[in-house]
Amino acid sequence: VYGSRPRTRPVHEIHLRLALLVPVGFVPLLAAWSVPAMALLVLPAGCLLAAFFATRNELAGMVAPPGAVVESVTWPLTAVIAGSALGAAVCGAAVERSGWRLATALAIAVAALGTGLVRGRRATLVGPSAAQVAGA
Q: In angstroms, rounded to a whole number, what is the distance separating the alpha carbons of residues 91 and 124?
């Protein structure tokens, strides 16, 4: 859906909005009464994540120095994979200790922290101007 719609705002604004919505998209999971219900309640969060990652990759390519676009996309991907592994370990321990709702709440809290990071670094989400790239 994200890719099929015409863009009406700059990608950095869309990315910031998605960063704000991602934690909210996971909140309905706390109301799940069964695994099938959880599978349905996670769909909005998954859709938001897909668009969030798409904008993140696009921004990484936009702010990368010339000749480093591929590398600029691999570093955020590496961070996502490392964060997922750490999150799985922490949330797995939380599930064993206190149940899945605590693990879900932890995931929402970490997503909210990520939102704060994106918001705090929003000035760096805009690529260099053409004059800066040309060295003017």
A: 31
